């Protein structure tokens, strides 16, 4: 999916097999973003709502953070990938094409306006659908309720941001650097797991160099 969007092949999505330092150390650097797949539960959702309210996220969010509303059903994985790439254009040299043009056209728009543009971005939607159909398991239909969700973690202007297409603002999780992004995001992922310790359906991947 990433490469169809124009992301160079030197960048790939890699599995993160564990959040302990020994397992994080085997992930190739640099790491540009971390994506967490988590089960939707009342415990986790309550915590996320509190974070949005208490972290004063509107004031904390840097102007340079690219945040887009998820207005397409069951596309949270695609939104997480878009967030991961769009917030790393200083490192990722996108090839000319529909995705690069989409980001340029929506750069100055609001979170909601970007989501509205995505609804009309047929090239991106088609690529999303093609990639979903190529997966090992059948992708859910748009009207089927799903019970898991993807969020992305990125470094921007010295802060660790969690980007969720269902939330109106990014969540600032404190300071980080490009070098410590993986470890700092892993800490937040662990906090997710601690909120629902009996749940095991968590998956973490990284957008990182593969060479």
From TrEMBL:
Which positions fall inside the UCH catalytic domain?
1-209
Which EC numbers characterise this protein's activity in its record?
3.4.19.12
Superkingdom of origin: Eukaryota
Keyword Hydrolase (UniProt): yes
One GO biological process this protein is involved in is: ubiquitin-dependent protein catabolic process
Q: What are the residue positions of the site described as Important for enzyme activity?
A: 164
InterPro entries linked to this entry: Papain-like_cys_pep_sf, Peptidase_C12_UCH, Peptidase_C12_UCH_sf, UCH_AS
Q: Which GO terms describe its cellular component?
A: cytoplasm
Q: Which PROSITE patterns match?
A: UCH_1, UCH_DOMAIN
Q: What class of enzyme is it?
A: hydrolase
Q: Cite the GO molecular-function annotations of the record.
A: cysteine-type deubiquitinase activity
Q: Which Gene3D superfamilies match?
A: Peptidase C12, ubiquitin carboxyl-terminal hydrolase
> Which transformation does this protein catalyse, written as a reaction?
Thiol-dependent hydrolysis of ester, thioester, amide, peptide and isopeptide bonds formed by the C-terminal Gly of ubiquitin (a 76-residue protein attached to proteins as an intracellular targeting signal)
Q: Does the keyword Hydrolase apply?
A: yes
Q: Where is this site: Transition state stabilizer?
A: 70
Q: Which residues does the Swiss-Prot or TrEMBL record annotate as the active site?
A: 76, 149
Under the heading SUPFAM superfamilies, the entry gives: Cysteine proteinases
Q: Which keywords has UniProt assigned to this entry?
A: Hydrolase, Protease, Thiol protease, Ubl conjugation pathway
What family classification does the UniProt entry report for this protein?
A: Belongs to the peptidase C12 family.
The job of this chain, per UniProt, is described as: Ubiquitin-protein hydrolase is involved both in the processing of ubiquitin precursors and of ubiquitinated proteins. This enzyme is a thiol protease that recognizes and hydrolyzes a peptide bond at the C-terminal glycine of ubiquitin.
Write down what this protein is called: Ubiquitin carboxyl-terminal hydrolase
Species of provenance? Acromyrmex insinuator
């Amino acid at each position: 999916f990433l490469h169809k969007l124009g992301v160079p092949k030197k960048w790939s999505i890699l599995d993160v097999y564990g959040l302990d330092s020994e397992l994080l150390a085997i992930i190739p650097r640099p790491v540009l973003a971390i994506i967490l797949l988590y089960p939707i539960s009342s415990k986790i959702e309550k915590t996320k709502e509190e974070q949005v309210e208490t972290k004063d996220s509107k004031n904390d969010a840097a102007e340079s953070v690219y945040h887009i509303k998820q207005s397409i059903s069951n596309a949270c994985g695609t939104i997480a990938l878009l967030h991961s790439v769009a917030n790393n254009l200083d490192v990722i040299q996108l090839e000319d094409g529909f995705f690069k043009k989409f980001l340029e056209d929506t750069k100055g728009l609001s979170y909601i306006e970007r989501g509205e543009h995505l609804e009309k971005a047929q090239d991106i939607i088609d690529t999303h659908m093609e990639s979903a159909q190529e997966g090992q398991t059948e992708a859910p239909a748009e009207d089927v309720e799903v019970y898991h969700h993807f969020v992305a973690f990125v470094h921007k202007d010295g802060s660790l941001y969690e980007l969720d297409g269902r939330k109106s603002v990014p969540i600032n999780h404190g300071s980080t650097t490009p070098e410590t992004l993986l470890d700092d995001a892993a800490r937040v992922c662990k906090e997710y797991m601690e909120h629902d310790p009996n749940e095991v359906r968590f998956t973490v991947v990284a957008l990182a160099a593969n060479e």
